[in-house]
Target: Leucyl/phenylalanyl-tRNA--protein transferase
Amino acid sequence: MYRLSSDDLIYGYINGIFPMADTDNTLYWYSPDPRAIIPLDTYQPAKSLRPVLNKKVFEVRINADFEQVMRKCALPRSENDGTWISEEIIEAYMDLHQMGMAHSVETYIDNCLVGGLYGVALGAAFFGESMFYQVPNASKVAFHYLIEILRKQQFELLDTQFINDNVRRFGAIEIPRPEYMKRLKQTLQKKATFTEPVLAHLFKNQPD
Model:
């Protein structure tokens, strides 16, 4: 029986497609047109978030508990919601994480995971997949540090797939698929590293 693999994921991202599971766990591949991206040079944290950053309400970690971030992202948002993150998808992304290509940014309070996001880094592109929060601002802080990491490490493309109110608040825009594919090809030819020891300095230098 066919099972989604890390190689499938890599091939998909390189070709501008990504998988999502249906309610019966059947996998489908998507390539939206237009495509949603978040320009890295225009993002600014909301004014309401700055006090949270300054007070260091959350401890921020990267890649500390990738699997739990995925599993919490997979939980239905409400009783009437399903999830597109199946067990098969979790297993494939876990393999990709072990290969050093899938990453999580996590927020903690009292050593308890309360928010985070995960995605895939290839070349100088980062493909955001999903985020969750259990207390207010937890995912927003994780996203803020994702942007800081991507900027510092000279990433050039942040893909967010579909446009919705959640990503609009972070400055997401839509571009035609041909333009997205052109940018994707360019950024895949470049090299950027998501995790390095220097990133720890980001967590000590929060904005005023």
